[in-house]
Amino acid sequence: MTDNLQFQPIDSQFLLNPYPWLAQMRQEAPAFYDEAQQAWMVFRYDDVKHVLSEWKTFSSKPPQAPDRKDFTQALPFTDPPKHQSLRAIVQKVFTPNRVEALAPRITELTHELLDQMKSQNQIDLIKAFSSPLPIVVIGEILGVPLDDRENFKHWSDGILASDSTASQTMSDYFRTLLQERQSHPGQDLISDLTAAYEQGEKLTGQEVVDFCVLLLTAGNETTTNLIANTIWCLHENPDQNERLRNDLSLLPGAIEEVLRYSSPIAFLNRFTQVETHIADQTIPAGQTVHPWLAGANRDERQFENADRFIIDRTPNEHIAFGNGIHFCLGAPLSRLEAKIGLKALLEEFPNLCVDSTQPLKPIPNIRVHGLESLSVLL
Ligand code: HEM
Fold it and tell me: Where are the domains of the chain?
């Protein structure tokens, strides 16, 4: 392997643009053991899809004893049959219809945020818009009282930074809310999850709480990044920006292209149950594997001109939402939020552009792909 490009997980330039390294890895070391991370990394589209579909070989369950202080027993960290029973029940209440019914409310919440931006010439788009939007929406779905929503961003940031106090505080909060809903059910997801539990279905109180915490953590930063990465991609591709501005009906395709080209989750975790083979390498049992969604989604074996951002790319079978049994449950919701949010943003601020005088600062976490702040001129 040539050594001109290195894995530099804490370097800003690398975090902003890991793609040349990913291209080199796909070409020269498609399944690679990284000593520093003590993990196997897999980069090609077909191999990543394989890892995600073979759950018997590549388990989602962390091998360490689960720590009840965090939520490692929640949906994404389980295998069948546990995964199947948890997923069946949450799928029953977290349905595409329920999400679609939220469209008018998401539109209202979007306009509330945009109205607050109108008096300004320059703002941090992430702080003012792309971060609060998913938080207020999920708060609405869960039926969290308005007064408590301020805390959410704080808690979910804490959990992402592996702060066990934050996850404990959030769990305690949801436990109290759950008890309230058990005695006074409403028209919200917590009440429905509780009802399903009370009707002899499989969710325990702890599982309802875990699921609530999961929705806040799995759904917020990812959707924030999808919205902000769209503005970032458009800024870096002025021709595509102009096409979209002239025809907003291209927006749904543009969002799919952002998911592919600038995938909000860079890689996932899996754990080998048995010895297996990928790309001529033997991976022993008991190993951590990182299937790189960001690598797969730029694979030229799958996507023509993979390094070009093309808003009406067809076909576009990206795997930014994963693949197989753990396929993102929130995909319809994040697509809807991005569609409503970005359409309103681009309509309200037809001259919105990224302030090129400010350096771009990546989120300092190699697992996710996004910016800490994004200064825009309105
Ligand atoms: C752009 C936004 C999003 C992206 C890129 C994304 C990506 C993903 C990916 C890659 C997985 C698979 C994880 C794995 O296989 O280990 C996943 C799972 C999941 N996502 Fe999302 N997600 C997004 C938004 C959301 C939202 C808004 C919610 C809910 C409010 C959500 C809830 C979930 C849940 C519950 C799972 C676990 C599913 C399971 O294990 O069966 N996600 N997501």
Answer: 12-377
Which atom belonging to ligand 1 lies closest to the Cα atom of 265? 5
Is 12-377 in CATH node 3.40.50.2300? no
What tokens appear for 139 in the block?
A: 């708060």
Q: Please state the pTM of the whole predicted model.
A: 0.94
Token pair for 125: 């788009």
CB-based contacts of 183, cutoff 8 Å, min separation 6: none
Mean pLDDT computed over every residue of the chain: 90
Ligand 1 site residues, Cβ closer than 6 angstroms: 52, 60, 75-76, 87, 138, 214-215, 218-219, 222-223, 226, 264-265, 268, 320-322, 326, 328-330, 333-334
Strands (E), 1-111: 31-34, 39-42, 58-59
Alpha carbon distance 22, 266 (integer Å) = 11
Alpha carbon nearest to ligand 1 atom 20, residue:
328
The two tokens of residue 35 are 């000593």
Alpha-carbon distance of 232 to 229, in angstroms, equals: 5
C-beta of residue 180 within 8 angstroms of C-beta of residue 253? no
pLDDT digits (tens, 9 = 90+) for 80-95: 988 988 888 888 888 8
pLDDT digits (tens, 9 = 90+) for 199-234: 566 688 888 888 888 888 788 889 999 999 999 999
SS3 at position 308:
coil
Handedness of CA 84, 206, 330, 326 (dihedral sign): negative
Strands (E), the chain: 31-34, 39-42, 58-59, 122-124, 270-272, 276-278, 281-283, 288-291, 353-354, 361-362, 371-373, 375-377
The two tokens of residue 168 are 């404990």
Ligand 1 atom showing the smallest separation from residue 83 Cα: 41
- pLDDT tier at 26, thresholds 50, 70, 90: very high
Per DSSP bridges, beta strands 276-278 and 353-354 are unpaired
pLDDT of res. 327: 97
8 A C-beta contact, residue 52 and residue 326: yes
Here the tokens at position 375 are: 């200064």
CA of 372 to the centre of ligand 1 (A): 20
DSSP letter assigned to residue 362: E
